[in-house]
Each structure stands twice: as C-alpha cells, then as structure tokens.
Specification:
alpha+beta; seven-stranded mixed β-sheet; four-stranded mixed β-sheet; elongated; binds zinc ion
Length: 386
Amino acid sequence: MTDAAIPVTGRAVERFVEAYLTSLGAKIEKDGRQWSVVLPDDADTDLELDGTVLEIADDPADVEDGAVPIAPESPFVERVLDEAADRTPVGSVSFTSDGVEIRFPPWITDGPTDVEEATFTPYYDRLAVCALFHVGIETVSEYQREELRAVAIDLNDEEERPRLAESYLDLVNDDQRELNEGDRIDEARLKDALDGAHTAVENDVSSVVLETRERATRAADIELDEYRQFVRQRRDELSDEIENLSDRIEEVNETIEAASEQQERVDGLRKRKELQMELDDLRSEHDELSSQIETGFPEKRHEIRERHALTVRIRPVAATAISYERGDLELALQSNSTTFSRTYGYAVGVGVMEDANCERCGKPLTAENPLTITGNRTIGASCCGE
Ligand SMILES: [Zn+2]
C-alpha cells in the first residue's frame, strides 16, 4: 500500500460521505455524531434524505433507533459509493505556496544539513487530476479488502504524481483548512486523466490481486481435496455396509430354507425384502459416489470455484482538478558550519521535482545518503562524507 491509499475506516467513510453530499449541494447540520441533511430540490441524486438522521458509527448496528448508520460497509455508505462511482463528482482546488507549506525532501532534512531559509518563486501553473478510487477485492467465501485510493495524474505529461495525491489527502483531511477553488477542466481531458488513473490503480493493486487469487486457488484446492477424502471415506464405509448387509441377507436366506413353519417362512421373506431394499439404496449411493470419483467431482469443483472466485472492483468516486504552482525553490543551507545556497525545481504539493546526486561520486542523495557539503561541493553524507 502506498501512502495515498487509506483503508475504508470509519474516518475515511465519514469524510467521503460528507464530501459527496456537499458536492450535491447539501446542507449538513451536525449534532455530535448525528447529521441532518437537507438536499436542494434539484440535487442530482437518488438519495432520499429529508427527515433522515445520519449517525456516524463504528458498528452499523450500534445507532439510535431510526438513524441511518454511516459506517464501513453499511448499506447507506455502499449506496453513496455506488452513486458516486456512477457520477464521479468533479471539484477543483488550487495549491499555491501561500496555502501549502514548503515540503523538503528527506535527503535534505534527514541529514546534517539545516535549512536556514527557503524562497519559492512560482513561474507557471500546472494542472493535475486527483481521483479517489474505491477499490474492493473480495471472494464470496472469506476474503475482503476495501480501500480508498488517491491517484494524481499530471495533465501536462500524463505522469503519476504520488506526492501530489498524498498532499491532496492530507489537505482534504485537515478540518481547519479552506482550499481555494482552482481551474475547471473539460470533459475529454478529465476522461483521459481518469482512464490513466484507473490504469495506475490497477497496477498498484495487481500484486495484491495476484496474491489473493493464488490464496483463493489454494483454499479451493484444499477444500476440494477434503471433499475428495470425505467421498472416498464414505464410499469405503458403504462398501463395508453393503458387505455386512449381504451377509445378513444370506443368513435370512438360510433361515427361510430351513423354516419348518409357514409363519417363520413369511417373517423371513418380509425381513429379506426389507434388507434387500436397504441394500439397493446403499448400492445406488455407492455407485453415485464411485462415478463422482471417476469423473473428478465436476459439480463440486464448479461450486467451490465459484465460491472462491475473485471480484475486483476499481471505481472512481470523486475527482478533483488541482492547479498547482511550479517554479524554483531557493534554499539557504547550513552544514559543517558552512552556509551555502542551492536552487531546485519545485512544485507546490509535490515537492522538489528533480533527483539530486552526490557531486563527487554521482550516487543519488536519499534519506540514507543525505546532503552535506565539503569545500564547495554538495555530497552524500554516507557515500563521500567523513
Ligand atoms: Zn558520493
């Protein structure tokens, strides 16, 4: 899971429902954990909320009488997710250096270097789409995983911007912050960006899907194996019972032949008929099981496969056009009692755009190999530092 994925917890669900209702133009009155919602008459929704009390709950069963729970997997939240996936409401925000704090990369902050001053000069605006996807991976039998995953795609180069998606999640989860509205985006560009984002989410979850599929296949194999053993055992038991019953019928036959009185003979014949019927039943069950064993349990196999089949749902439930500023970040730095300055390409919400390398040996600077200075060259503290 990248940082831009959040499990569908109570908090995430609450945020998401609020954002969706707000996108419909709803007025939400909050009283503790209870919300009453008034939708405008022309709201484009099938949700009927007039007079309904929504209540935030950890457990959907645990709300006041008549209240509709907002909880992970509650039917109401499922409906909101479904409707949001059908409509994908689109908002817009603008990230500027006034509203979003400057973010330094770990290869600067995790080492011996201090940032004394930072000046950002924006040169132009870039536009990205950040889409929130509801991802559900489940099998009928047992496995279920749900999460909301944010993906940001830059419209200029169609590249993914994971840190922009993280910044977006941080900011929308920050109660205190009012975000400015940004540029709108046309339908065609939005569609392209959502397609790109969808592919990115598919790639992100592919290893989980693969792993889950393998696990489900193993579970199905084990179940089929247990069933096979059970059928074999039952067939062996039946063979024994058939043999016992045949012996008893043989004994009854002898009794009938040796009978000297009419009544004894009639009783014997009745007994033999009963036992014979029982034997026929056992034989037909035995034959049925033998034929299942020979053909490899096609019906059971199908039923088990169905039960362990994997359903993967990836649906965009919200999209936001993000305008963000790009420019230069000029830093006054201090390390080893030396003050020096460096300038890096920088984007608000994304951070430093370029990779930095040790000026002595060329190794990349990272949290483990952070920036320091020697003479007038910036170097990695691990690769070339003292
Ligand atoms: Zn080096």
